[in-house]
Amino acid sequence: MNDDLDWVAASGRRAKGKRPQFFDEPALDRLYSTVFALAAEVSALRERQDTLERLLEQHGVMKREEIDRYEPDRAAGDERGLATRAYIARIMRGFQQEVEAIEASDPPIMDIVEKLARE
Q1: pLDDT computed for residue 12 by the predictor
Q2: Which of 26, 16, 24 lies closest to 99, judged by CA?
Q3: Which among 12, 19, 71, 96 is least buried, having the fewest CB atoms inside 10 angstroms?
Q4: Segments in the chain below pLDDT 50
Q5: Residue 12 lies in a domain
Q6: Is residue 61 part of a domain?
Q7: What percent helix, strand, coil does the chain show, rounded to 5?
């Protein structure tokens, strides 16, 4: 696993151009985007897991029941934690970008307070 790559930052990269809007309420677009991202992730993972289980069993490496009984060690748990953080960042990308857009358009409150204090 590449520890130098910031998976959270990488998952937040933006496509060029404006995000398309299909519904009158932007929150619905973000919600659907999140749901479809989750559905795509789950579908890909299920297919990949099925392939692995079938190959392992076919080659006599292990039976599928062994996968159900597996308990990860500390290192595996740490790797899974990093993978989970990257996964969550990918599915929350739309919300994250919306917050960033709001923050970029509004000056920090202390700048406003200082400006008002000088006037």
Answers
A1: 66
A2: 26
A3: 71
A4: none
A5: no
A6: yes
A7: 70, 0, 30
